[in-house]
Amino acid sequence: MTDGAFRQWAIEHTAFLYTMIYEKGFVFFDFWSIAHFWSGMIVFLILAALGWKRKWFWLGFFIVLYEILEVSFIYFALNIFKPERYNDLVMDVFVGVSGAMLCNALLLLKSNAKKVESLPAWSLMLFSSLTLAFIWVGNYQYKYNFEIFNTKGLNIGAFGLWSIGGFVYLLFYHATVRKENRFLLRLSLAWVVYFVFLLVLEYTGYYTMQWREISTPGARPLVLGLIHGNWALHLYYIIFPFLAIALYEILSYLVFRALNNLVRQKFKLNEQTVRA
């Protein structure tokens, strides 16, 4: 991929993040704010899971480093991101640190020196489904023949469907499929159930409700006259179960490690004392 092609690709896939959600004076929020808030939570979670003692220092370091790299891209290199105002940079850092503080508070919400209680599984499923929905829907830029769903920046109809669908799917996976010990059978069963449900949903939307996705001219169906879109959409629809399961399992592992490390460091407990 040439520099020009990469620049164009990056511009197209980050454009939705500049959509303003709220602005009044110095304070503003756009979809970049959501991305920075999410990044603050994830970076803190990883640092805590790794057991780094100076987590807040390194969190600030990585956030500021990212801002420096972003400014470098803007002014010296690829000119990928739109130029930012100074208050944009301050807000980015503030939002990132706020995400980290919320993550820390949630992890330690119900734990103390005598009891370590992890986050409920449903919260990790919801976080996973919202994350994938935000990234995919924002990048693909769905557009429907019903204008009510075509909200600026992020298509609210597609985002809602992917968020709810992903959450329900992970609930099913956690309640049933995850209990199967044979790895390949577990993944196969999870994918078959997902794809059958997807085809039923697509049939209902396309043929019964006459709901059309029109962002891609000449879109082709993937199978049985259903799932119309380009190759990227077809690929994502096929691999989505594996992405959702992988994100949920990784997140569950990181939360377990981070919680134990945070409780041990906060209450000065030895490793053998802590159990989640």
End-to-end C-alpha gap: 46 Å
Give the tally of β-strands: 4
- Main beta sheet, described? 2 strands, antiparallel
Percent helix range: 55-70%
**Oligomeric category:** single chain
**Rg (C-alpha, Å):** 21 Å
Q: What's the mean pLDDT score?
A: 83
- Choose one word for the global shape: globular
> Can you list the strand order of the major beta sheet?
1-2
H/E series? HEEHHHHHHEEH
The secondary structure category is mainly alpha
Per DSSP, what share of the residues sits in E-state strands of 2 or more residues?
5-15%
Our count of helices gives: 8
Low-pLDDT parts are: 272-276
Describe the fold and architecture.
The chain is mainly alpha-helical and 276 residues long. The chain contains eight helices and four strands. It has helices spanning 3-14, 31-50, 55-75, 86-107, 121-140, 156-175, 183-208, 231-267; strands spanning 20-24, 27-30, 220-223, 226-229. It has a two-stranded antiparallel ribbon. Helix 2 (31-50) crosses helix 4, helix 2 crosses helix 8 (231-267) and helix 6 packs across helix 8. The longest helix has 37 residues, at 231-267. The radius of gyration is 21 Å and the shape is globular.
Summarize the structure in short.
The protein has 276 residues and is mainly α.
Tell me the layout of helices and strands.
Elements: H1 3-14, E1 20-24, E2 27-30, H2 31-50, H3 55-75, H4 86-107, H5 121-140, H6 156-175, H7 183-208, E3 220-223, E4 226-229, H8 231-267
Antiparallel strand pairs: 1-2, 3-4
